[in-house]
User: Fold Mannitol dehydrogenase-like protein from Mameliella alba.
Amino acid sequence: MTGSLVKLSNAALVDLPGGVSAPTYDRDALTPGIVHIGLGNFHRAHQAWYLHRLMQQGLAQDWAIVGAGVRPYDEAQRLKMAEQDYLTTLIELDPKGTSAEVVGSMIDYVPIVEGNGPLIERMADPAIRIVALTVTEGGYYLDPATKAFDPAHPDMRYDAANLDAPRTAFGAMIAALRCRRDSGAGPFTCQSCDNLPGNGTKLEEVILGLARLADPALADWIAAECSFPNSMVDCIVPATGPRELALVRDFGIDDAVPVTHENFRQWVIEDRFCAGRPSWEEVGATMSDDVHAYEAMKLRILNGGHQVIADPAEILGIETIHDTMAHPLIRGLFRKVALEEMALHVHPVPGMTPEAYVDLIDTRFSNPKIADTVRRVAFDGSSRHTGAVLPVIRDAVASGTPLDGLALSQALWARMCAGTREDGSEIVPNDPVWGDLVQAARAAKDRPQAWLDQRQFYGALADDAGFAAAFAEALARVWAEGTEAAIRAYLD
Assistant:
């Protein structure tokens, strides 16, 4: 089989197997306009795809992507992508049939070097007009409780004192903006593409907060000249493993870093770009002044729903999200919490009510082609629960609406973080602060308040008597009777 595979490269685009679509544009003629930091699967299935679709129409030829990273492990990804001329095979996992296309909107990848000199130099190039990021919800140096910029973080203190050789993407962006100010090259747009409420606003807080620590005059220039558009991004993109590598080989392609994705994408963007932008609306993106409404619907029902179902699935040893949705109790839990507790705090958007969106997410989660893993979805719950579930709980407490299912979701998270499944097998560490979570979860078995006393997550919620009582009752039932019994009691 290996001998018949087409090794992905520019030269091989004319030899791709039948049925696999290829770039129709001249990649050698593309020029860069975007540096994207965080070249994971999601970016390549989402933002890079939208740009590719524009290029297929003969547009945006001067907006090609230069990939970037700031962590040592990013170098392995860079080398793999360089070997195949920065091309990616995207495999769409539609329940009606699987298809593949090769995306060519990325043309380079900055070497990962301590001090980030090459990255700073590339972002300082006047040709770069957007610097975008997908660095995960937990990558923004925000205080977990307040969600405000944390100037005391060691990385932030280091970058403020060492702006010529920073550790972080944010320090590198500020260093590049300093070069552009001094050279007269002008600003670039700072564009967050992460699942973070008010992602552009949060990015602005981090950039300006760090800049003020390092150089207050530079911070003033950035505030006056740069733009930070908010956006909402949505597409379920599994991690790449043996299954995905086998899928791309089934198409006859040798691709070291293929990406699979569902047959759904959404990108809602605030139209605030200080140095121009591609015409993403020509290929299905929505330009809107009300990103927050779309964002709240997606974060609360999809991202929050993911956490509601992933934790009980992990406790019960279910491996994939579609198998989780095939479990009648867990699917019932999702639908009841989403419809009766989450949807109350979500506004409709053009063409979509919260109730219809719950049905859409039910269908997407249940897609058997995706095989998205419970472990991937449950990863970094300390960021994902605090970003997607706890805001709904706060709204429910403030408005006096039902929250028993939301409290149960927190009890199930606490039970999962005890580190063992109901069959006794170990749940291996799955969060940047796993050790702290395990300690709190095990203490909460006998004293539920020990979990809520993680003030960095719960803040004043820990003091709300109604929520604390609902949580304590749910957690006691989970430990005494088991996960399925606790869900059944809620559904009944």
